[in-house]
Specification:
The protein is mostly beta strands. It is 0% helix and 40% strand. A hairpin with a 2-residue loop joins β2 and β3.
Length: 90
């Protein structure tokens, strides 16, 4: 494990490992799942944008698309659109 981020709105944890990204629903109490849509390689850093803890997007009636960014050592950056708590993607 090299990094952990929390999607506060969905109460979901994302953990980077040597074998990809794991998703823990209900803050990890709902079981752990391999994150679909991302290759299973070493991940060195995770970040959710926009952050629910840092006010980066304000105003407007439309919701901003939430994305999980993942960085791999010397292999670039991947992104995955996050689902809402109801299961719909933005």
């Amino acid at each position: 494990m090299s990094d952990v981020v929390r999607d506060d709105g969905a109460q979901t944890l994302y953990v980077s490992t040597d074998f990809g990204v794991l998703r823990g629903d209900n803050d990890g109490t709902g079981g752990w799942h391999v994150t679909a849509g991302m290759p299973r390689y070493e991940v060195t850093h995770l970040e959710i944008q926009p952050s629910s803890r840092v006010p980066t997007c304000t105003g407007g009636a439309e919701a901003v698309q939430r994305v999980l960014m993942r960085r791999r050592h010397s292999r670039g950056i991947w992104k995955m659109v996050l689902a809402t708590k109801s299961g719909r993607t933005w």
